[in-house]
Design brief:
By secondary structure, the chain is an alpha/beta fold. It has one domain (14-209): Rossmann fold. It contains 5 helices and 7 strands, in the order ββαββαβαβαβα.
Amino acid sequence: MLKYIDIRNLMIIKDAQYIASYPSYSACPEGDVPEYAFVGRSNVGKSSLINYLLNRKNIARTSNKPGKTQMINYFLVNASWYMVDLPGFGYAKVSKKQRKSWELMVKNYLQHRLQLQNTFVLLDLNIKPQKIDLELINWMGEIQIPFSIVYTKMDKTRKRDIADRLLAYEEALQASWETLPPRFISSANKRVGGEDILAYIEQINERIKTNSKKS
């Protein structure tokens, strides 16, 4: 987890707008605008987190019914980078064929989208580590897709239980990983963790600009 925020990397969201939804990675926007994807199981709180990060009430559609996001949704932020909302996975109340289609859409995007700079994998802090989450994380590691982990819904966990929940996840991850990726703790309801996540994105954006100037 980030222990502090470098003031030079603080990001202010001046503008955020929904661009479009796409059925496949190959249909997504062309160009070299950096992309940051958010992915997780259905009902992990992904849309709420995106709304919180972008400081917009309903820019990403939220619903009590899981499986609302069914395409690759693009949001242009500060006219300089894309936040990408990927379909949730693991939603049982659709056909097996539909679940497979969403899974293939997500994996194709993650594996082949050259503009992708980092993927934030969302994990619900209120439930024990899930096999489907760990499989995705390990798959991303195997094919070297840069990613970070965001623990969601911190506000729904009693403070005295947070450390135990984190430890359970850390132990599950360490079964396959020697060095863990960056991790963040968040709560969309309490507006916690957003500055750290945005500062991390800004850090990557600044590195891209520096490398571009050198080349």
